TrEMBL record:
<dbReference type="GO" id="GO:0016791">
    <property type="term" value="F:phosphatase activity"/>
</dbReference>
<feature type="transmembrane region" description="Helical">
    <location>
        <begin position="230"/>
        <end position="254"/>
    </location>
</feature>
<dbReference type="GO" id="GO:0016020">
    <property type="term" value="C:membrane"/>
</dbReference>
<feature type="domain" description="Phospholipid/glycerol acyltransferase">
    <location>
        <begin position="287"/>
        <end position="388"/>
    </location>
</feature>
<dbReference type="GO" id="GO:0010143">
    <property type="term" value="P:cutin biosynthetic process"/>
</dbReference>
<protein>
    <submittedName>
        <fullName>Glycerol-3-phosphate acyltransferase 5-like</fullName>
    </submittedName>
</protein>
<dbReference type="Pfam" id="PF01553">
    <property type="entry name" value="Acyltransferase"/>
</dbReference>
<dbReference type="Pfam" id="PF23270">
    <property type="entry name" value="HAD_RAM2_N"/>
</dbReference>
<feature type="transmembrane region" description="Helical">
    <location>
        <begin position="26"/>
        <end position="50"/>
    </location>
</feature>
<dbReference type="InterPro" id="IPR056462">
    <property type="entry name" value="HAD_RAM2/GPAT1-8"/>
</dbReference>
<keyword id="KW-1133">Transmembrane helix</keyword>
<keyword id="KW-0808">Transferase</keyword>
<dbReference type="GO" id="GO:0090447">
    <property type="term" value="F:glycerol-3-phosphate 2-O-acyltransferase activity"/>
</dbReference>
<dbReference type="InterPro" id="IPR002123">
    <property type="entry name" value="Plipid/glycerol_acylTrfase"/>
</dbReference>
<keyword id="KW-0812">Transmembrane</keyword>
<keyword id="KW-0472">Membrane</keyword>
<keyword id="KW-0012">Acyltransferase</keyword>
Length: 495
């Protein structure tokens, strides 16, 4: 998976490695995720001014205005958090694969951007395998707050830093927009501008390579907030809040049997595949529904499909979400023997829902399944859950979890897909002598195959270490190595 050896390359990020040359939507993300709706709206209001400055060839003034509005008064650590947990997903969605393959075909790889370095460095180094990143530098006061200004002239700063990085001679190749050729790209022996063409055999060999995927990401927004998308989100917010209130109220007051039909009136949709098992009869233990974990709504949607209030095992759901939940919840402690007794007790009363990943994952990957469920029962029904939303994600690691159900129901047309697989045969359970880990891995594999996802060995702890930024050099290097295995092997499961 490593890039081959050839001379150095200098590439612009936006407009070369990223298809969109406009920075605006990334500053909108910083404004929304690091500060809130008011700053988000203010930056959108100023977009015509920023666009006018760009038309008048005063793009750097517009850039400084975006930087000021989106960052002034925000803690530097909060911007770092957004750059680590939110921005990489949107950068990755906008990657120019041809440009990246040309970039990756060189031994030494440098990236420059007019955006603040803090916003792009983690993504570019870890996912695009750049050696160094040069960008504008935010001014931070002694209390850790960003002043909204940048150090010095942006172009002079970038040119000076690139020159120092290339003390051994001019870079062999420069990638960037034509507008960049008069400054930084003139430092290179050769220049290429989009669209990039794979011309040499060595470059064509890199067709098989992919940037390291973004597996964990956070934030509320589903789509990159371009000006039109941001305006649509702002206009939808009042109606979305009202709609969320109506949908949640319906879940409280109406019987579960009519909710699927009424929800269609208000834009919701549930797609059911496979045949669910019959309810447990008197005197029999219940079935354990083992689900993939996409949002906090998974157990609620499953109970709606089954037309009965099945209790759900929870770990870190907020108290408000538990209060709003139309089904019973069983809060676990993460103390193994205590949780085992709780689950056994609930199964003796009837059916139960568990999500053994322990936390949600938005991307098409499944986290490692805890083996506890396999030790406690042989009546296991795997259920593949997936969802589609338009504006807002329902779960975040950084925000207040109490808002999770509200944001989910604020989406115009939330869609859930529920696929019931056959109950595990006896020979696939622990009763046939299989270990709990083998059973858990098997369930993970068949659910991943159903959804078209990849299996991983990552856990809840890995997710929060990466998103919270307390991973440390050694653990994050290990994390990147595991991601490389996912990309290079393309096997259905890693374990």
């Amino acid at each position: 998976m490593e890039c081959s050896s050839s001379p150095s390359v200098v590439s612009e990020l936006e407009g070369a490695l990223l298809k969109d040359p406009d920075h605006f939507s990334y500053f909108m993300l910083v404004a929304f995720e690091a500060s809130g709706l008011i700053r988000f709206a203010l930056l959108l209001i100023l977009w015509p001014v920023i666009r006018l400055l760009d038309v008048l060839n005063m793009g750097d003034a517009g850039l400084k205005l975006m930087i000021f509005v989106s960052t002034v008064g925000v803690r530097e650590s909060e911007i770092e958090s957004v750059a680590r947990a939110v921005l990489p997903k949107f950068y990755m969605d906008d990657i120019d694969m041809d440009g990246w393959r040309v970039f990756c075909g060189h031994e030494r790889r440098f990236v420059f951007t007019k955006m603040p370095r803090i916003m792009v460095e983690r993504f570019v180094k870890e996912h695009l395998r750049a050696d160094e990143v040069v960008g504008s530098e935010l001014v931070v006061n002694r209390f850790g707050f960003v002043t909204g200004f940048v150090n010095g002239d942006i172009n002079s700063h970038i040119s000076g830093r690139i020159s120092k990085l290339c003390v051994d001679g001019k870079p062999a190749l420069g990638l960037g927009k034509p507008s960049s050729s008069s400054s930084i790209l003139n430092l290179c022996n050769e220049q290429l501008h989009p669209p990039f063409m794979m011309t040499t055999k060595k470059q064509q060999d890199h067709q098989i390579l992919r940037p390291l995927p973004v597996i964990f990401h956070d934030g509320r927004l589903v789509k990159r907030p371009t000006p039109s998308t941001a305006l649509l989100i702002l206009l939808w917010m009042p109606l979305g809040i009202l709609l969320a209130f109506i949908r949640i109220t319906i879940g409280f007051i109406l019987p579960m049997s009519v909710i699927p039909y009424v929800s269609r009136i208000f834009g919701g949709k549930i797609i059911v595949k496979g045949k669910p098992p019959a309810p447990p009869t008197d005197g029999n233990s219940g079935v354990l529904f083992v689900c993939t974990h996409r949002t906090l709504m998974d157990p609620v949607v499953l109970a709606t499909v089954l037309q009965r209030k099945i209790p759900a095992v929870t770990y870190s759901v907020s108290r408000l979400s538990e209060i709003l939940s139309p089904i019973p919840t069983v809060r676990l402690t993460r103390i193994r023997h205590v949780d085992a007794e709780k689950i056994k007790g609930e199964l003796s009363k009837g059916d139960l829902v568990v999500c053994p990943e322990g936390t949600t994952c938005r991307e098409p990957f499944l986290l490692r399944f805890s083996a506890l469920f396999a030790e406690l029962t042989n009546s296991i029904v795997p259920v593949a859950m997936n969802y589609r939303v338009g504006f807002f994600h329902a779960t975040t690691a950084r925000g207040w979890k109490g808002l999770d159900p509200i944001f989910f129901f604020m989406n115009p047309r939330p869609v859930y897909e529920v696929t019931f697989l056959n109950q595990l045969p006896v020979e696939a359970t622990c009763s046939s002598g299989k270990s709990p880990h083998d059973v858990a891995n098997y369930v993970q594999r068949i659910l991943a195959a159903t959804l078209g996802f990849e299996c991983t060995n990552f856990t809840r702890k890995d997710k929060y270490r990466v998103l919270a930024g307390n991973d440390g050099t050694v653990s994050y290097t290990s994390f990147v190595d595991q991601v490389k295995k996912v990309v290079s092997t393309f096997k259905p499961c890693l374990h």
